[in-house]
Amino acid sequence: MTSEQQLDLRGKRVLVMGLGTRSGGLGVTRWLVEQGAEVTVTDLRSAEELRPSLEALRDLPVRFVLGEHRREDFEEAEIVVRNPAVPRESPWLALARAAGARIEMEMTLFFRVCPAPIIGVTGTKGKTTTATLCATILRQWKPETVLAGNLGRSAFELLPAIGPDTPVVLELSSWQLEGLDEHGMSPHIAVLTTISPDHLDRYPSFEAYVDAKRAIARHQRPGDWFVVNRDDPVVWSCRDTGAGRVIAFGQDDGVSEGAFRKGDRLVWRFAGQEEELLHRREIPLAGDHAVSDALAAVAAALLRGAALEHARAGLRGAQPVPHRLELVAHIDGVEFVNDTAATAPVAVLAALETFRGRPIVLIGGGAAKGVSLGELAQVVAARVRAVVLLDGTATPEYKAALENAGARVFGPYRSMEEAVHQAARLAEPGGVVLLSPGCASFGLFRDEFHRGEAFRAAVRHLASRQGVER
């Protein structure tokens, strides 16, 4: 970042709005204290709800305001660092802006101080797998590669290990991109995987959601790169967003520069040369969507400086990402698969396609995100043996749509253990019990990762009761 973007935080009154239960709030709070800021943390949750986070910060000179927000904290703050879950339209932020405060986020601060070029990855589906695969490839070249962002890992906690040549890969949510957009920031290499309706409880329209995703490349300059999915019409329509050079990935058109699938082969075409990467069967990840993610990851890693042999080695050694089509156990001939990160219909459809032809018992439902579940229900009813629903604000609509489509529906259940036990009773040998909710997790769970952890625990309890070797 240029010098005018740097912030001198010594003695500044900084208000962290939303500590959270994952590492982002902790990392930025520690870093702010290290920079000499006078830090106050305000969060609507109670001390008991935030106990692990508070324990992690207990030795720092931080003032906490919990269970409420106070007007004077926002009026007196010079800088407010908002959690991504806090809407930018929050009246508390409006109050701070009116009093002259600067609004930042963990990511905007990190972009200012990171000494290395950043690879940023976003999309409705595939961003975590793509970012992880990209980092896996880059580590074949530079083992010190950093992976952080919207996947439960604070970028600031890893900042001391980052030098000018360190590859840095960040998963970026639409909410984090809002903050970067406000300050005119985009990564050196931007990757856009897929876009489909999601978070419409937060955005006024699908177009507004698309615009938030588009921000990943909006402020790129000549010399930057924009890696774009040519198989997704919405994503491809975003290719001219900024000044970065467009590199495509997807099915091969025989002409474009980028990473492509040609039948069962993956190839890289760049600067007038075409090189074969490997065969599809060499990538140990399930589903066609995994191939798309691999192509995006290869493109970004090669543009950053990795070589073809690094890409081959990284993809051959790829491991499934936790909470995304994660095999938890085999019990009585049934696979129990944790896909809790499938919080949008498009992700559920990809999971169902992965297990096409096998008897599936789907565990779904949860909190509403403003997205219609009607079309998803039609596909689910045609593809699965039964649906077991978790309770939540979206579940009544989902249940009605499923029943209208002819699905066998059980529940809703108020605990994951009940849902897993019901699903196990309905499953048959050779089949799959698939947690792929299509909804947010709030209500029964803190977040989707907590939901996935509850699924793992319930499955392992079931296995231990039945004396099964996992």
Automatic annotation (TrEMBL):
<keyword id="KW-0963">Cytoplasm</keyword>
<keyword id="KW-0573">Peptidoglycan synthesis</keyword>
<dbReference type="GO" id="GO:0008360">
    <property type="term" value="P:regulation of cell shape"/>
</dbReference>
<feature type="binding site">
    <location>
        <begin position="123"/>
        <end position="129"/>
    </location>
    <ligand>
        <name>ATP</name>
    </ligand>
</feature>
<keyword id="KW-0436">Ligase</keyword>
<dbReference type="Pfam" id="PF02875">
    <property type="entry name" value="Mur_ligase_C"/>
</dbReference>
<keyword id="KW-0547">Nucleotide-binding</keyword>
<dbReference type="InterPro" id="IPR005762">
    <property type="entry name" value="MurD"/>
</dbReference>
<dbReference type="InterPro" id="IPR013221">
    <property type="entry name" value="Mur_ligase_cen"/>
</dbReference>
<keyword id="KW-0131">Cell cycle</keyword>
<keyword id="KW-0133">Cell shape</keyword>
<dbReference type="GO" id="GO:0008764">
    <property type="term" value="F:UDP-N-acetylmuramoylalanine-D-glutamate ligase activity"/>
</dbReference>
<comment type="function">
    <text>Cell wall formation. Catalyzes the addition of glutamate to the nucleotide precursor UDP-N-acetylmuramoyl-L-alanine (UMA).</text>
</comment>
<keyword id="KW-0067">ATP-binding</keyword>
<dbReference type="InterPro" id="IPR004101">
    <property type="entry name" value="Mur_ligase_C"/>
</dbReference>
<dbReference type="Pfam" id="PF21799">
    <property type="entry name" value="MurD-like_N"/>
</dbReference>
<dbReference type="InterPro" id="IPR036615">
    <property type="entry name" value="Mur_ligase_C_dom_sf"/>
</dbReference>
<dbReference type="Pfam" id="PF08245">
    <property type="entry name" value="Mur_ligase_M"/>
</dbReference>
<dbReference type="GO" id="GO:0005737">
    <property type="term" value="C:cytoplasm"/>
</dbReference>
<protein>
    <recommendedName>
        <fullName>UDP-N-acetylmuramoylalanine--D-glutamate ligase</fullName>
        <ecNumber>6.3.2.9</ecNumber>
    </recommendedName>
</protein>
<dbReference type="GO" id="GO:0051301">
    <property type="term" value="P:cell division"/>
</dbReference>
<keyword id="KW-0961">Cell wall biogenesis/degradation</keyword>
<comment type="similarity">
    <text>Belongs to the MurCDEF family.</text>
</comment>
<dbReference type="InterPro" id="IPR036565">
    <property type="entry name" value="Mur-like_cat_sf"/>
</dbReference>
<feature type="domain" description="Mur ligase central">
    <location>
        <begin position="121"/>
        <end position="301"/>
    </location>
</feature>
<dbReference type="GO" id="GO:0005524">
    <property type="term" value="F:ATP binding"/>
</dbReference>
<dbReference type="GO" id="GO:0071555">
    <property type="term" value="P:cell wall organization"/>
</dbReference>
<feature type="domain" description="Mur ligase C-terminal">
    <location>
        <begin position="323"/>
        <end position="437"/>
    </location>
</feature>
<dbReference type="GO" id="GO:0009252">
    <property type="term" value="P:peptidoglycan biosynthetic process"/>
</dbReference>
<keyword id="KW-0132">Cell division</keyword>
<comment type="pathway">
    <text>Cell wall biogenesis; peptidoglycan biosynthesis.</text>
</comment>
